[in-house]
Write a structure and sequence with these properties.
By secondary structure, the protein is mainly alpha-helical. The chain has 24 helices and no strands.
Length: about 425
């Protein structure tokens, strides 16, 4: 309790989370008689991870795709495939988020990129600003579930699990989640018009509604998005086929993007490359410092026996793996309303992994559940990062968008329960490919 109280006090004081984690680790290790040399060596070991290079690589890929205008090509491709329907633009937004997630690996970045394009279009097409903001915010959360995913990378590093297996494990749940969100959006448009549509307006009658798909339209859709599709195939296909490690795949995709953006489409300028690299370095530096402090805090928890004590408390309630998982998921959803995703992974993985492993729960499956709870955290105040991006794009207050996104949080919760009870949904592809 002392560790938790001290950490909460530091965070409430306004200190960055990495400072709070580092200070708590240093103070409690020193007071426990543990050599501070252990603190330094643990922090160094935390960042001395080869796989962390992949995080930087994926961040740079996402920034280059955004600056190079490839996101717009992806949206045009998705628009042709969705076809016409009353909820067309809402479904297009979610589908575009799902496709862009295969590049960005970031929830807020997906909301900013896709939402920045689609929210104004939805509002012009007589959707309410609340509904448009909610759709983009919830669709953007797919960015950390559909591979490649930086949270999966971080979880793989902390939990010592195969990153390629984690990426594969997120594919089917990501598709199911995108379908669930699309169904939710369609139901809202059909049965709750006051929530989804401007009074007297009919989104289906607007000129921006996509046309029905034809054979020629299919060919044109693939042609318009060809460079983005090749990048996704290069990135993910190279990993799954065993041609590249995740790190190599990220670097190859970076060079591909530079080649296409500079010399083929010519949409990428040198100032865009500089801006992309600057943004990547800023975020990567923050993450590396957070990883170092998180590893130190995890070592402190081990020294204090926190995982063992919490495990005994949870198992005192039930020995049933499903019940234990549901309890842990509830705790993680609550914590996710207050904590940033990477902080959750770094701090909570060492706590919960020793609890679930003896119960026969696969760590790969648990990683998928972990990321889904983090997605819900993106949509819940006070920390919900996607909400802050969505509210600015849709010109809403935090209270307005927090209420508007509730139907989509319900969709996430339903899919989470399905994944808890049917782990083969997550494990089917990793077992099929890697045995």
């Amino acid at each position: 309790m002392g560790v938790a109280a001290a950490l909460m006090a530091f965070l409430v004081s306004g200190l960055p989370i990495w400072v709070g984690l580092g200070l708590v680790s240093m103070l409690f290790m020193w007071s426990s008689g543990v050599s501070l040399h252990m603190l330094v060596s643990t922090m160094y070991a935390g960042v001395d991870q080869y796989a962390l290079i992949a995080v930087t690589g994926f961040l740079l890929v996402a920034n280059l795709f955004d600056k190079g205008g490839i996101a717009q090509d992806l949206i045009k491709m998705v628009e042709r495939f969705i076809g016409s329907s009353r909820s067309g633009l809402a479904v297009i937004t979610i589908a575009s988020c799902a496709v862009f997630a295969a590049i960005s690996s970031s929830g807020p970045a997906t909301v900013a990129t896709i939402g920045g394009i689609m929210i104004p279009s939805m509002i012009r097409s007589k959707y309410t600003a609340k509904f448009a903001g909610a759709v983009a915010s919830s669709g953007g959360a797919l960015g950390i579930l559909i591979p490649p995913s930086n949270p999966f990378l971080m979880y793989g590093i902390i939990a010592s699990q195969s990153i390629a297996s984690l990426f594969l494990a997120g594919v089917i749940p990501g598709i199911i989640m995108a379908i669930a969100l699309s169904i939710t959006a369609s139901l809202c448009v059909k049965y709750f018009p006051k929530y989804a549509r401007v009074e007297g307006g009919d989104p289906a009658s607007e000129g921006e509604r996509p046309k029905k798909l034809t054979f020629l339209g299919t060919f044109q859709a693939f042609y318009e998005g060809k460079w983005a599709l090749i990048a996704i195939i290069l990135l993910l296909g190279g990993i799954y086929a065993g041609f590249f490690t995740p790190i190599e795949a990220a670097e190859v995709t970076i060079f591909y993007t530079l080649l296409i953006g500079l010399f083929v489409t010519k949409k990428l300028k040198f100032r865009d490359i500089y801006a992309s690299m600057a943004d990547t370095v800023k975020l990567s530096g923050t993450l590396i410092i957070l990883v170092a402090a998180g590893f130190a805090f995890a070592r402190l928890l081990t020294v204090q026996g926190v995982p063992q004590a919490l495990g005994a408390s949870i198992q005192g309630v039930s020995q049933d793996p499903l019940v234990v998982l549901l309890i842990i998921m509830a705790l993680m959803i609550f914590i996710g309303t207050w904590a940033e995703t990477f902080s959750q992974i770094i701090v909570l993985t060492p706590i919960f992994l020793p609890i679930i492993t003896p119960l026969g729960i696969d760590p790969i499956h648990f990683g998928v559940l972990f990321v889904v709870t983090a997605e819900i955290g993106f949509l819940t105040p006070p920390f919900g990062a996607n909400l802050f991006v969505g509210m600015k794009l849709a010109d809403l207050t935090l209270e307005e968008i927090s209420i508007s996104v509730l139907p989509f949080i319900g969709a996430y919760a339903v899919v989470l329960l399905i994944l808890v009870f049917f782990p083969e949904i997550s494990l089917f592809l990793p077992r099929l490919v890697f045995g």
